[in-house]
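Incident log entry.

Two folding requests arrived from the same account within the same minute. Monitoring flagged them as a possible duplicate submission, but the sequences differ. Recording both here for audit purposes.

Request one:
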Amino acid sequence: MKLFRTTAALALLAAPAFAADPELTVFDWAGFEEPVIFQGYIDKNGDSPTFAFYGDDDEAYQKLASGFKADIAHPCSQMVSKYRDAGLIEPWDTSKIPAFADIDPKFLNSPIFKDDGGVWYIPTDWGATAVAYNTENVPAEDVATLQVFTNPAYQGRTSLPDSADDVWALAYLATGVTDWTKVTDEQFKTAADWLREAHKNVSAYWADPAEMSQLMASGAVDVAWSWNDGPTLLKQEDYPVGFQREAKEGSSDFFCGFVNLKDGPGKEDKAYDFINAWLTPEGARGLLDTIGYGLTVPKAMASITPQELVDAGLGPINAPVLSQTPNDPAQREKQLAEFEKIKAGF
């Protein structure tokens, strides 16, 4: 059962690594160690890479900045500038990645990812963040607006991600901002005030989709700001869960990918074997079936039907979208600090 699979993945967060091939260490989100996503690597090298796990992007960065050694890591797009500024990564040699030319150009449309110094980021996977809700307990009209998170009727019945990027995406959308690269001080304050109101309804901040799924499945919460994989897994377990991406204020999307860490302890060629295994039709199918995300290579996604994307919460929508693309690092640090205050009740 996939819900139990993610529960097992959550337990792995306490472990330093999932040991296999010692010549490649991948620092990744729990759950991405599923072999069907990178079967080509196993076919060539005889085993999975060694995986080490983290729970959120800031945790991963702090661990690597403190000296933890791995060969590649899997940050989401808004983190790449921090890795570059800290000198933790080096460019990829895209001549060793045949499918690089097939990556949808919109995922590389930033000098943070690609400049005269080289290609610093290989975007691989994308998903959506929106309102997950118990369809038996929550009327559809309540989740037609993001103000459901401040609705007094849901006090103690909501959950938000323990992720500054995702909660600020929500707060900006809820207060009328759809582009977080152009936020004024007044818009920041308005969003922060809204987030403080939303905090009053929060039962728990979830750390990963397994925890969010458990909170909803147990009946502890009825409404959550969620990535699309959690509701997908719950639907497969016959839980009455909806995923509202078309609230009048909109929803969010994100994409993640791999960086090449400097001075990795493993073999560089195996890092390329791993990336090449991801960027295939087999990788696209494995990613959708196990995690619920899309691959950044349209050609590799050709066998996936439009209905499968809709079922995974990735279909087209008619609502505003805040894309979690790179924003100003100083603004992001300001948001992170304010989020910590809000969680602490200040």
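Request two (distinct sequence, not a duplicate):
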Amino acid sequence: MPNKSSKNTVMPDDGQKQDLAPRNEPVQSRSIRRSKQIIDVTGELLERVGLDDLNTIIIAKEVGISIGSLYHYFPNKYAILYAMGSRWLESIDAVFMEVLRWPLEELALSELIDKILAIHLKTYKKQKAILTLVQAMFSVKELRELDAQHDDLVIRQMSEVFKRIGLQRHIRERERIARLYLEVTHSTFLVVVNQNENRAKRTLNDLKRMIESLLAHHLSNSQER
């Protein structure tokens, strides 16, 4: 999961270190609430103004605090986006912890896919400005490590899920299949969150068919070995 220590620094174009860690880790209830408010408001602004026009001045104004007070919590907008991305990854990690508590070995493949797609889609729908955030994690160098952490998390955990449902392959092969699962589901979820209900339902049904066909094929080959 993301490292929130003061070691989170990057090198911007001018060669100076860009600090991504919060100024102070909030411990009091009021500070925790304020930090969360800043992150939540940034998510709302990200949806309205986009990444390029987002800055700490409009964030502070929207929160209702001075720019100096904002800097007491976060040194720059990338630190806020980093915290937002980290929080999203934590929600994904929590989902996997729940999934791994399921009786995976007893679930029919179709039921498992229904359940796992539904629970993961919720994390995409819940996160504000998810498409812009994901694009920022991929394209903004200050946030790129979050993109790698996201991929590693999903691949590692899905590889374990595949093992438990009977896909008896070398871990590298399970990770290869897990990466394919990641790429297909991740891109599809980002589309679904912006579709109307009927269109989203059809898209998810197509996604389920693709994943079920993929896993049925590999599970069948595992049983034949």
